[in-house]
UniProtKB/TrEMBL annotation:
PANTHER family: RNA POLYMERASE SIGMA FACTOR RPO, RNA POLYMERASE SIGMA-G FACTOR
Organism (species): Anaerocolumna sedimenticola
Keyword check for DNA-binding: yes
PROSITE patterns assigned: SIGMA70_1 (PS00715), SIGMA70_2 (PS00716)
Coiled coil: 121-183
Protein name (record): RNA polymerase sigma factor
């Protein structure tokens, strides 16, 4: 029996089907838990919290979504763990991330009034000139998991962030988690550091080009880049 049918039965009250979906996705929960190790909590505790996110994903998953269940479940599980850590004072959301989330909420309301419906992720991204992933991470950082899904999933699958950028391989879940972690880490940097990373790794600019644009020496760019990468590595660990 495939996952979608199991979820359908689970939502109809079939406990065995529900347990089967949970068992099949235990590895997914542990993959996410590993990203939050060394934060002052036992892995088993984080696993229990992540499992709550998995159960919520099972209960809320809409079969009309043209997306794999794991793609839907990953942000839900991550959100549950991050909300727990945030409430415990471990995770601090950057001010820039909060400001972005505020702009998104205002834009969503404006577009809702304009279109007479909930705007898609692409429409919000275009209005604010932000990448879809940035919109997702900003909303998720505010622990607005449910409203996040209302915005993204419109039934045709086109609004599922990252779905069109991930290869269908056995490492799909790990790739998705890696991308989310990287996006969040970059978003936590100050604007100048973000700009250097954007120029260097997303626009493939040389250190010499960046030095000219920023009005500093190539040596300074090199030092800054190493410092930023070290900072990012520490955050992701």
């Amino acid at each position: 029996m495939d996952t979608i049918e199991l979820i359908r039965r689970s939502q109809q009250g079939d406990k065995e089907a529900r347990d089967k979906v949970i068992t099949d996705n235990i590895g997914l929960v542990w993959s996410i838990v590993r990203r939050f190790m060394c934060r002052g909590h036992e892995p088993e505790d984080l696993f229990q919290i992540g499992s709550i996110g998995l159960i919520k994903a099972i209960d809320k998953f809409d079969m009309s979504y043209d997306v794999k269940f794991s793609t839907y479940a990953v942000p839900m599980i991550m959100g549950e763990i991050k909300r727990f850590l945030r409430d415990d004072g471990v995770i601090k959301v950057s001010r820039s991330m909060k400001e972005t989330a505020g702009k998104i909420r205002i834009t969503r309301e404006k577009l809702s009034n304009l279109y007479g419906r909930e705007p898609t992720l692409e429409e919000i991204s275009a209005e604010l000139n932000l990448a879809k992933e940035e919109v997702v991470m900003a909303l998720e950082s505010g622990a607005e998991v449910e409203s996040l899904y209302k915005t993204i999933y419109q039934g045709d699958g086109n609004a599922i962030y990252l779905i069109d950028k991930l290869e269908q391989t056995n490492d799909e879940n790990e790739n998705m988690i890696d991308k989310l972690a990287l996006r969040e880490t970059i978003a936590s940097l100050d604007e100048k550091d973000q700009e250097l990373i954007r120029l260097r790794y997303f626009m493939n600019r040389t250190q010499t080009d960046i030095a000219k644009e920023l009005g500093i020496s190539q040596v300074q760019v090199s030092r800054l880049e190493k410092k930023i990468l070290l900072k990012m590595r520490e955050k992701m660990m």
